[in-house]
Fold each of these.
Amino acid sequence: MSIYRGFSTLEGEFSSPRLTDTELINRDLLNSFAIRKGEKVGNPAYGSSILDLIMEPLTEEVKNLLIEEVTTTINQDPRIGLKQLILTEFNNGIQCELELVYVQTNQVETLLINFNRQDGTVS
């Protein structure tokens, strides 16, 4: 039985919950990264500044800011914990390799997230 149930607006279908547990948490995390702080109505602290930071050259200072922003965004969700974060640059942006712990199940999973400089997307 599912602990968490929700839906994704990516498919455009809202009739019934389509995502559960880790799949839902991962989608919510991607949404948090994709929304800039101040964009969510009624909750200006929600989101991250990552999409602004990825346009900068990856200096040590920017890398540290990115790591801090990723960590802060993950810590805002009580359903997950961060075990490890590896940040690397690739052709079109920044890639984060996250080792996450799902609190309710104590399950550990590695999640790769790409922040694309060209089109400002998170995948």
Amino acid sequence: MPHRILFICTGNSVRSIMAEAIANDLGRDIWQAFSAGAAPYGVVNPLTIATLKAHGHKTDGLYSKPLSQFLDDDFDVVITVCDNARQSCPVWPAPKTAGRPGKTHVEHWDIEDPSEFSGSESEKRAFFEPIYADIRGRIEKLLER
């Protein structure tokens, strides 16, 4: 049974979506990743999709989802990727499903929001790259544990 991980940010448009796609690619059969927003925007930022595709990630099926969709689900790990989501994140109970003993591990990654950057289209694209690299590096370390 793969480990389940949930990435949460405010709008579920950039950082948590990137984390979901990267973790599903790198974790394959070991991890099953999801993402959600405390106040989802309802759409994925087009530069998120462009950045993921540029790095060879699949983007089919990625969409902005509300956190409420996952409140009754079991997760081994829950990660907030912005301070606002950290403050609004509910306390996660221990998994209820047999085979998932123990407590849900909750952690916070403070990742800058590239959607707040203003500049030309090429400057915005360039600003997304270090955010992608940061998220990927953190996921690689997480998967090594």
